[in-house]
Amino acid sequence: MGEQPIFSTRAHVFQIDPNTKKNWVPTSKHAVTVSYFFDGTRNVYRIISLDGSKAIINSTITPNMTFTKTSQKFGQWADSRANTVYGLGFSTESHLVKFSEKFAEFKEAARLAKEKSQEKIELTSTPSQESAPGDLQSPLTSESINGTDEERATPDTPQHTEARAELSQNALPYSHSSSSISKHWEAELAALKGNNAKLTAALLESTANVKQWKQQLAAYQEEAERLHKRVTELECVSGQSTVIKSQKTELNQTIEELEFALKTKEEELERLKAEVESANEFQSHKDALLLKLQDTESRNQTLEAQLSDLEERLESSQQEREAFQKSLRSLLELLDSKIFELTELRDSLSKLLEAS
To answer: Distance (Å, rounded) from C-alpha 234 to C-alpha 228?
Structure first.
């Protein structure tokens, strides 16, 4: 199944300064995704975070770990395997609380998984399994090469079989003379010395082979450890593929939001340009109206001057008219008096004519 992300959040990642063990050193320039992963095959929980393609957190949760909240938005935990202390800075307190709750939950799950694995080991362990390491090492012992003491004392070869037969024959009543027996034992001793030399050479050769095998085994173990680390790194990278996809989705959403915001800003810019153009038109129209107003004011001043002149002329005309009316009244009065005098004169002349 491989590792699967079961919870993710975003935070700024820090590590304790290995020299001072007091100051925090930031390992990410900005907030990155920090995820909990579960490996179903090994029943292991891990905290993993990538900054680009670099793994800045790769911490396996163990039952003796503790996540400590040092402030409202900052928390830390110590990883003895990595020989460091990790710190996370969150944007809100709720994100810190959620991460802490998940840490406690997966820590308890890791403890239960460890207890179950220990119970399985205890139940499945048998004497045959306990003797298995001895079986693996048995081909490399001197007894397996040279045989046991009984085997070395009685090697199973045709010469030894013949010697046993000859010894049996010597024990019979019809045995050979003592000289023939001593020759036989000398031959037997020489054969045993030859076999012993061969076995010693074989033992030395086997010892050299064992040393060579140990060197090869150490090289194989180093290669296996290197491959295991490489596999772990590849699992980490492959396990982060889902997180990278989610980050890509988030980035795509962010790009879409930015494009929408940019489009909105462009529309607003176009609207502002239209408003500026209309404002320019309004300003030009205002300038034209100001010119017209100034022209009108100048014409108004001219008309006011003309009006004041006409008012003065009208006033003088009225004065002249009043004077003319006064002279005309006096003339009419004079004319009336003259007409009256003429009427009297006429009457008097008529009376004179009538009297004569």
So the answer is: 10
